[in-house]
Amino acid sequence: MARRSLRRRPVWVMVASGLLGGSAFAALGVVPAAHAQPRLQYVALGDSYSAGPLDGPPTGDILCLQSSGSYPYDTASYLGASLNDVSCSGATSADVTTTWQYPGVPPQVDALSSSTQLVTLTDGGNDNDLFVSALVDCGVIDILDVFDIGSPCKAVYGSTFTDDVASDAPTVEQTFAAIKADAPNAQVYVLGYPDILPSSGGCYPTMPLSNGDTTYLNDLELDLNSMIQTEAAAAGVHYVSTFSQFVGHGSCATGSNQWINAIIATNGGISVHPNATGEQEMADILESALAANGIS
Fold this sequence. Notes:
This protein has helices at 11-27, 48-51, 71-79, 93-97, 130-142, 152-157, 160-182, 211-235, 276-292; strands at residues 41-44, 58-59, 66-67, 82-85, 118-121, 187-191, 238-240. The chain is α/β, with parallel strands linked by helices. It has one domain (39-292): SGNH hydrolase (Rossmann fold), CATH 3.40.50.1110. The chain has a five-stranded parallel sheet, sandwiched between helices. A two-stranded antiparallel sheet has the order 2-3. A hairpin with a 6-residue loop joins strand 2 (58-59) and strand 3 (66-67). Helix 3 crosses helix 9 and helix 7 packs parallel to helix 8. It is globular, with a radius of gyration of 24 Å.
């Protein structure tokens, strides 16, 4: 059946429609566009695990390596939200709250206001150069450990990295407090870091670590996530765990099962970061957490 052209409607019908206005539409269960629900105001903060570098077409400031393949973009699409993504690869807690990370890239909290309704972030992995130092230092020590002898990196560094995590707790606490202060009407969700390395075994040379040091760094990540979760709870921030869902899909996995890249990124994205599939999985986990709290 051909569609009936609106231009053929009698003038009296058009006049009557105008006179009846919203009441007639309401009686039919239809809400006029002028009264449609405003879009959720969503601000994404955080580091490269939020920015999704090279996981899709680039967006935002080129220095921050944001991409539209990141979990904030997927979540904003899912929610039909208005997204302001100010996440930035390499960001520390200080870059979130107080410092200009690059020229033209102010503290991320500057994007927040009383009208912000949702905030998400990943944060803490770059404080004290934690991730980079641990991976590089252990990689250098273990690179020639082809016979997998013990835990050479752990023998050298011991509790150094976990001490850095403990010392960073007050900084992470202050980060959450600053976000809550600058976005007083928002729900805030911090995502923990997904599982990067297996809890036992290894995949040398894909990840050039001894089996013992693979476990050592896996434990370090668990310690970091535990600290973030504790500080989130104290600040009234929602903590979203992504770790267990990524077990078996980290840097030692292969093919489509690999959601976190190894040293050489073979599935797009950058080394030791979520690829596009990993960012999608993080989005799915976040969206489930939001739905559980009535945001969908």
